Amino acid sequence: MYRGQLTKWDNAKGFGFIKSPDLSNDTFIHISELSHMSRKPKQGDYIHFNIEQHQGKTRAINARIEGAKSISTLQVSKHSKPKSSNKLIYGLIFVGFTAFIVQRLDLGKTNQIPQTQLIEESSISKPLTKTPTQSFTCDGRQHCSQMRSRAEAEYFIQHCPNTKMDGDRDGIPCERQF
Q1: What percent of the chain has pLDDT above 70?
Q2: How far is residue 74 from each of residues 17, 39, 66, 77, 96, measured CA to CA in Å?
Q3: Which range of residues forms the domain containing residue 43?
Q4: Residue 59 predicted with pLDDT over 60
Q5: Inter-CA distances, 130 with 3, 133, 134, 150, 160, Å
Q6: Domain harbouring 36, CATH code
Q7: What gap in Å lies between CA 165 and CA 142, rounded to an integer?
Q8: Percentage of the chain with pLDDT > 90?
Q9: Residue 97 lies in a domain
Q10: If we measure between CA atoms, which residue out of 110, 163, 118, 114 comes closest to residue 140?
Q11: What H or E segment, with its residue span, contains residue 19?
Q12: Is 30 within the bounds of a domain?
Protein backbone atom coordinates (compact mmCIF):
# COMPACT_ATOMS: atom_id res chain seq x y z
CA MET A 1 0.00 0.00 0.00
CA TYR A 2 1.29 3.44 -0.92
CA ARG A 3 1.00 6.75 0.92
CA GLY A 4 0.91 10.08 -0.86
CA GLN A 5 -0.38 13.63 -0.66
CA LEU A 6 -3.34 14.83 -2.70
CA THR A 7 -1.72 17.61 -4.76
CA LYS A 8 -4.63 18.44 -7.06
CA TRP A 9 -8.36 17.90 -6.49
CA ASP A 10 -11.33 19.00 -8.64
CA ASN A 11 -14.40 18.72 -6.43
CA ALA A 12 -16.82 19.48 -9.27
CA LYS A 13 -15.46 16.67 -11.47
CA GLY A 14 -14.67 14.26 -8.60
CA PHE A 15 -11.06 13.41 -9.34
CA GLY A 16 -7.51 14.47 -8.54
CA PHE A 17 -3.84 13.42 -8.39
CA ILE A 18 -1.68 11.97 -5.61
CA LYS A 19 2.08 12.58 -5.37
CA SER A 20 3.89 9.74 -3.65
CA PRO A 21 7.66 9.58 -2.97
CA ASP A 22 7.53 5.86 -3.80
CA LEU A 23 6.16 6.43 -7.34
CA SER A 24 7.77 8.34 -10.20
CA ASN A 25 4.56 9.82 -11.64
CA ASP A 26 1.45 11.36 -10.03
CA THR A 27 -1.35 8.83 -9.54
CA PHE A 28 -4.91 9.51 -10.72
CA ILE A 29 -7.70 9.03 -8.11
CA HIS A 30 -11.45 9.09 -8.66
CA ILE A 31 -14.03 9.97 -5.96
CA SER A 32 -15.58 6.48 -6.28
CA GLU A 33 -12.47 5.03 -4.60
CA LEU A 34 -13.15 7.23 -1.54
CA SER A 35 -16.96 6.84 -1.39
CA HIS A 36 -16.75 4.84 1.85
CA MET A 37 -15.08 7.74 3.67
CA SER A 38 -16.92 9.99 6.14
CA ARG A 39 -15.95 13.13 4.19
CA LYS A 40 -14.84 14.25 0.75
CA PRO A 41 -11.11 14.61 0.11
CA LYS A 42 -9.44 17.99 -0.10
CA GLN A 43 -6.13 19.16 -1.46
CA GLY A 44 -3.30 18.43 1.01
CA ASP A 45 -4.88 15.24 2.45
CA TYR A 46 -2.67 12.19 2.78
CA ILE A 47 -4.10 9.19 0.99
CA HIS A 48 -3.30 5.51 1.48
CA PHE A 49 -3.90 3.54 -1.71
CA ASN A 50 -3.00 0.65 -3.99
CA ILE A 51 -2.42 1.11 -7.68
CA GLU A 52 -3.46 -0.49 -10.93
CA GLN A 53 -2.32 0.18 -14.46
CA HIS A 54 -5.06 1.53 -16.69
CA GLN A 55 -4.23 2.43 -20.30
CA GLY A 56 -0.57 2.88 -19.43
CA LYS A 57 -1.24 5.17 -16.47
CA THR A 58 -1.39 4.45 -12.74
CA ARG A 59 -4.69 4.70 -11.01
CA ALA A 60 -5.38 4.60 -7.24
CA ILE A 61 -7.67 1.83 -5.95
CA ASN A 62 -8.75 0.76 -2.46
CA ALA A 63 -7.96 4.25 -1.20
CA ARG A 64 -8.63 5.90 2.14
CA ILE A 65 -8.02 9.36 3.59
CA GLU A 66 -5.55 9.42 6.46
CA GLY A 67 -7.23 10.59 9.69
CA ALA A 68 -10.77 10.41 8.29
CA LYS A 69 -13.22 7.82 9.50
CA SER A 70 -14.43 5.12 7.21
CA ILE A 71 -18.16 4.50 7.05
CA SER A 72 -18.58 0.85 8.00
CA THR A 73 -21.31 -1.39 6.70
CA LEU A 74 -22.81 -1.42 10.19
CA GLN A 75 -23.20 2.35 10.18
CA VAL A 76 -24.67 2.28 6.67
CA SER A 77 -27.35 -0.21 7.75
CA LYS A 78 -28.13 1.89 10.84
CA HIS A 79 -28.51 4.91 8.60
CA SER A 80 -30.96 3.13 6.32
CA LYS A 81 -33.14 1.78 9.16
CA PRO A 82 -35.11 4.99 9.76
CA LYS A 83 -36.47 4.75 6.24
CA SER A 84 -37.97 1.31 6.86
CA SER A 85 -39.20 2.25 10.33
CA ASN A 86 -40.75 5.40 8.85
CA LYS A 87 -42.66 3.20 6.43
CA LEU A 88 -43.91 1.13 9.35
CA ILE A 89 -44.98 4.22 11.27
CA TYR A 90 -46.76 5.68 8.25
CA GLY A 91 -48.45 2.33 7.64
CA LEU A 92 -49.70 2.16 11.23
CA ILE A 93 -50.98 5.74 11.04
CA PHE A 94 -52.80 4.90 7.81
CA VAL A 95 -54.41 1.78 9.31
CA GLY A 96 -55.46 3.71 12.43
CA PHE A 97 -56.93 6.55 10.38
CA THR A 98 -58.80 4.12 8.14
CA ALA A 99 -60.24 2.28 11.16
CA PHE A 100 -61.35 5.58 12.66
CA ILE A 101 -63.13 6.59 9.43
CA VAL A 102 -64.81 3.19 9.10
CA GLN A 103 -66.02 3.41 12.69
CA ARG A 104 -67.31 6.97 12.26
CA LEU A 105 -69.16 6.19 9.05
CA ASP A 106 -70.41 2.80 10.28
CA LEU A 107 -69.03 1.20 7.10
CA GLY A 108 -68.07 -1.97 8.92
CA LYS A 109 -71.56 -2.62 10.29
CA THR A 110 -74.36 -4.41 8.54
CA ASN A 111 -77.93 -3.19 8.55
CA GLN A 112 -78.87 -5.63 11.27
CA ILE A 113 -80.61 -4.51 14.42
CA PRO A 114 -78.37 -4.88 17.48
CA GLN A 115 -79.20 -7.88 19.69
CA THR A 116 -80.07 -5.67 22.67
CA GLN A 117 -82.56 -3.75 20.56
CA LEU A 118 -84.15 -7.02 19.42
CA ILE A 119 -84.55 -8.10 23.02
CA GLU A 120 -86.10 -4.78 24.01
CA GLU A 121 -88.50 -4.78 21.05
CA SER A 122 -89.52 -8.38 21.59
CA SER A 123 -90.30 -7.70 25.24
CA ILE A 124 -92.42 -4.71 24.20
CA SER A 125 -94.14 -6.71 21.50
CA LYS A 126 -95.13 -9.62 23.73
CA PRO A 127 -98.84 -10.12 24.01
CA LEU A 128 -100.26 -8.22 26.93
CA THR A 129 -102.27 -10.09 29.46
CA LYS A 130 -105.85 -9.08 29.92
CA THR A 131 -106.30 -6.76 32.81
CA PRO A 132 -109.33 -7.26 35.02
CA THR A 133 -110.81 -3.90 33.99
CA GLN A 134 -110.82 -4.77 30.28
CA SER A 135 -113.45 -7.14 28.99
CA PHE A 136 -113.34 -8.15 25.35
CA THR A 137 -115.60 -10.59 23.59
CA CYS A 138 -115.40 -12.28 20.23
CA ASP A 139 -118.01 -10.48 18.15
CA GLY A 140 -116.95 -11.38 14.60
CA ARG A 141 -114.44 -8.63 13.96
CA GLN A 142 -111.39 -9.90 12.04
CA HIS A 143 -109.27 -6.92 10.84
CA CYS A 144 -106.97 -4.44 12.57
CA SER A 145 -108.99 -1.49 11.36
CA GLN A 146 -111.89 -2.77 13.43
CA MET A 147 -109.94 -2.84 16.71
CA ARG A 148 -109.92 0.01 19.24
CA SER A 149 -106.57 -0.89 20.94
CA ARG A 150 -103.63 -3.20 20.74
CA ALA A 151 -104.80 -5.09 23.80
CA GLU A 152 -108.12 -5.76 22.06
CA ALA A 153 -106.33 -7.01 18.93
CA GLU A 154 -104.14 -9.32 21.01
CA TYR A 155 -107.22 -10.71 22.77
CA PHE A 156 -108.91 -11.41 19.41
CA ILE A 157 -105.83 -13.25 18.04
CA GLN A 158 -105.54 -15.45 21.13
CA HIS A 159 -109.22 -16.19 21.71
CA CYS A 160 -111.25 -15.64 18.57
CA PRO A 161 -111.23 -17.83 15.42
CA ASN A 162 -110.68 -16.58 11.85
CA THR A 163 -108.93 -13.30 12.68
CA LYS A 164 -106.80 -11.73 9.95
CA MET A 165 -104.53 -9.51 12.06
CA ASP A 166 -101.40 -11.68 12.34
CA GLY A 167 -100.10 -12.25 8.82
CA ASP A 168 -96.79 -13.82 9.81
CA ARG A 169 -98.30 -15.82 12.69
CA ASP A 170 -95.83 -14.65 15.34
CA GLY A 171 -98.50 -13.70 17.88
CA ILE A 172 -98.11 -9.95 17.35
CA PRO A 173 -101.23 -8.36 15.86
CA CYS A 174 -101.41 -5.42 13.46
CA GLU A 175 -97.64 -5.07 13.17
CA ARG A 176 -97.88 -2.33 10.60
CA GLN A 177 -100.34 -0.19 12.54
CA PHE A 178 -99.15 -0.21 16.16
Answers
A1: 75
A2: 30, 17, 21, 5, 33
A3: 2-65
A4: yes
A5: 112, 8, 7, 11, 14
A6: 2.40.50.140
A7: 7
A8: 29
A9: no
A10: 163
A11: strand 15-19
A12: yes
